[in-house]
Amino acid sequence: MAKVNRSLTGTMGRSWLKDAQFTPLAFLAPTIVLLVAFAFIPMIWGLALAFTDYPILLSPKFIGLDNFRRLKDDPVFWASLRNTFSYIIGTVPPRIILGFVVALLLNQAIRGRNILRAMFYFPVVAPLVSVSLLWQWMFNTHFGVINGILRMLGRAPVPWLTSSKYALPAVMIMSVWKTVGWNMVIFLAGLQGISPSYYEAAEIDGANRWQCVRHITLPLLRPIILLALVISTINSSKVFEQVYIMTGGGPGYSTMTLVQQVYHSAFQSYEMGYASAISLVLFAIVMILSVIQFKYLGARTDE
Description:
Layout: H1 2-49, E1 52-53, E2 61-62, H2 66-72, H3 75-106, H4 113-125, H5 128-138, H6 145-152, H7 167-192, H8 196-204, H9 209-220, H10 222-237, H11 241-246, H12 258-267, H13 272-301
Antiparallel strand pairs: 1-2
Helix pairs in contact: 1-13, 3-7, 3-10, 3-12, 4-7, 10-13, 12-13
């Protein structure tokens, strides 16, 4: 009888162990299936299409590196690449700096800070299409609110969205306003994780507020800064909706970005192979920028 009980116990134990190993996979299975179906397979397919001539209505035809050779002589591609880098440089630093400053201010014990936090975060959850249409109206040369304020101040109206000089900066202003709240929340979470004892010890030693920020807050927030920087760079590199709605890539190609050119090549010119080649170049750029950020900032977070 004892042998039978031990045998049953061992069998039940092995069965329970199998169930315990299977249960997490059962919960993860739907997510894994969705990732494979809508992320990994399209990614591999897009990589393969970059080396083909694929006009959608016909079968893909392998052409090797011809799409990438074509990029070298495409002025629209170089304009899109330049505009994409300009957009990254013009939006990522303001997002990080303003988000940190706002988080620093709203981390203080001030009246109504929860309302202020909600006000700064509201643009993040607002639909991007609606926000783009709103700013398109605000930037209108003839009846926009911004030019109305300039007229009240005795200034001439600015052709924000119809001038190649101002169109891209106008889109940058809108994008920074839209995303500062997200960085604010990330930095607020980091600030609230810093023990007040650090600041108390620094104040006892005679440190002022700026010295506390420089020598305590910033070093302890390096992992958060790295996170915000990488995600902001990735989001800026794939800007599309606000450009498509506010300027359509114009005037000329002054606001054309790489994602905008991918859209035009794929769904207006029906050159899926060429669009995939541009997408692959954009992917490589994002990877290089992310590796550089992790190499230089990630190493400091480990110190």
